[in-house]
């Protein structure tokens, strides 16, 4: 596999060739990765998959016209043909007055931050096989588990390099390790399914297969014999495994392209309260080992921790350079870059801050409500904020989590939902978007 410096040099070479063919400006991203995964079912090996590859994406500008292409042929001949082809494409493209590279003065200069994203190690297939078997065995050993959809373990190591024609060229390495199990409990039509997984940048930070597997089995068994409930308005409590989706809707609504198009339910709320005063949404791309940590954004800009929402008040949009130009603002270091097409926007490691107290305290005054552990469907309107999802979880009765429920529907509107949000103090950093247990009062629940 390429190392970060060699990858950055290869990206610069592609840019130089594009400039030689008449491009006024260009940028290139190169991603090289190796991945290995092992899956088992009912104690038997099902699949071993390995992939290796490298691909380069080249974007060029001829005046206000641009085009993007990608290739897996990184030879000198291949890069030369790629550069000639993409410049010809750009000359035939329509003009876009917002297109262009990021401001040169905003580029990351000097050494990137040390985020410890790469443990450098390759995991042998036998080690992954043993982990996959162990996680499934632990799940199947839970009393009440009747069948398995399998266990899996895998790792990935990638080199990411970005270069631009106006002075940026850097790369970094990142590893990812994961383990998961999915099992069923009960028999026949009464069967219930659930799963558990864990991911980490370093293998030494992964939870044990026994812990992950036991969690999967216990979750499946806890869902047995769901009850039907009467619908109505009631408090809805979001378990951390699904509550991050609420923050995800906020991130989508404050993305620069959505704001520039006028297709966001938060388009008029910059500088206004969208959460209760005690809650904040923090974006930290510099969190060591973070699953979304990165030393620079998809246009080469420096990134830094920031409050997207501070004490309830929306502070910023998520802006790449194009959407920033459309809005007459500065880019915020949130550009994401794929191998083809223009940049989009993304965040680093995001969490909801400000929660306090125990989950028990959060629900102690709930006479009747639901705790959600699974959300189904995509019934969210990003323009109006109207929200409707299928869900499963547990009934809350007189402040206690009691019987499982399934096949229910929850509905509301994200604006009042966000403003009424309350959060416990059980935040853990396990995913790209992390939240504590969240309570939203007054939602409409239709019984299953």
UniProtKB/TrEMBL annotation:
Segments forming domain Metalloprotease TldD/E C-terminal: 232-447
InterPro entries: Metalloprtase-TldD/E_C, Metalloprtase-TldD/E_cen_dom, Metalloprtase-TldD/E_N, PmbA, TldD/PmbA_N, TldD/PmbA_sf
Protein name, UniProt field: Modulator protein
Residues in Metalloprotease TldD/E central domain copies: 121-224
Pfam families in alphabetical order: PmbA_TldD_1st, PmbA_TldD_2nd, PmbA_TldD_3rd
Gene3D superfamilies for this protein: PmbA/TldD superfamily
Family listed: Belongs to the peptidase U62 family.
Location of the Metalloprotease TldD/E N-terminal domain: 26-90
Organism annotation: Sphingomonas hankookensis
């Amino acid at each position: 596999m390429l190392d970060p410096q060699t990858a950055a040099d290869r990206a610069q070479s592609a840019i130089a060739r594009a400039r030689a063919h008449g491009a006024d400006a260009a940028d290139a991203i190169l991603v090289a990765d190796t991945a290995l995964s092992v899956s088992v079912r009912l104690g038997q090996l099902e699949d071993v998959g390995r992939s290796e590859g490298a691909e380069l994406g080249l974007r060029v500008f001829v005046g206000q016209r641009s085009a993007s292409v990608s290739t897996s042929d990184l030879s000198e001949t291949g890069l030369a043909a790629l550069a000639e082809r993409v410049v010809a494409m750009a000359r035939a493209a329509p003009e876009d007055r917002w297109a262009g590279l990021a401001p040169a003065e905003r580029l990351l200069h000097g050494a990137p931050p040390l985020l410890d994203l790469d443990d450098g190690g390759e995991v042998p297939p036998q080690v992954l096989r043993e982990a996959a078997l162990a996680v499934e065995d632990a799940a199947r050993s839970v009393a009440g588990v009747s069948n398995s959809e399998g266990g899996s373990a895998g790792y990935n190591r990638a080199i990411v390099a970005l270069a631009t024609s106006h002075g940026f060229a850097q790369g970094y390495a990142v590893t990812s390790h994961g383990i998961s199990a999915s099992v069923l409990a009960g028999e026949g039509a009464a069967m219930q399914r659930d799963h558990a997984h864990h991911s980490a940048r370093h293998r030494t930070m992964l939870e044990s297969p026994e812990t992950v597997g036991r969690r999967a089995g216990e979750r499946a068994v806890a869902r047995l014999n769901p009850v039907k409930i009467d619908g109505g308005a009631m408090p809805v409590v979001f378990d951390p495994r699904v509550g991050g989706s609420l923050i995800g809707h906020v991130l989508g609504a404050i993305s620069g392209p959505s704001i520039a198009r006028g297709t966001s339910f938060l388009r008029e709320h910059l500088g206004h309260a969208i959460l209760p005063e005690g809650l904040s949404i923090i974006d930290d791309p510099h969190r060591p080992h973070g699953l979304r940590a990165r030393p620079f954004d998809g246009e080469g800009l420096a990134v830094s921790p920031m409050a997207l929402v501070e004490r309830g008040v929306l502070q910023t949009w998520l802006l790449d350079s194009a959407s920033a130009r459309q809005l007459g603002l500065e880019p915020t270091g949130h550009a994401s870059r794929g191998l083809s097409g223009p940049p989009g926007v993304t965040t680093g490691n995001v969490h909801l801050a400000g929660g306090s107290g125990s989950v028990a305290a959060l629900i102690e005054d709930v006479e009747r409500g639901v705790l959600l552990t699974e959300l189904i469907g995509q019934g969210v309107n990003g323009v109006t904020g109207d929200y409707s999802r299928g869900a499963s979880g547990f009934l809350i009765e007189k402040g206690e989590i009691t019987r499982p429920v399934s096949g229910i529907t929850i509905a509301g509107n994200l604006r009042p939902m966000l403003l009424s949000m309350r959060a416990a103090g059980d935040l853990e950093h396990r995913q790209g978007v992390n939240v504590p247990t969240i309570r939203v009062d007054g939602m409409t629940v239709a019984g299953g």
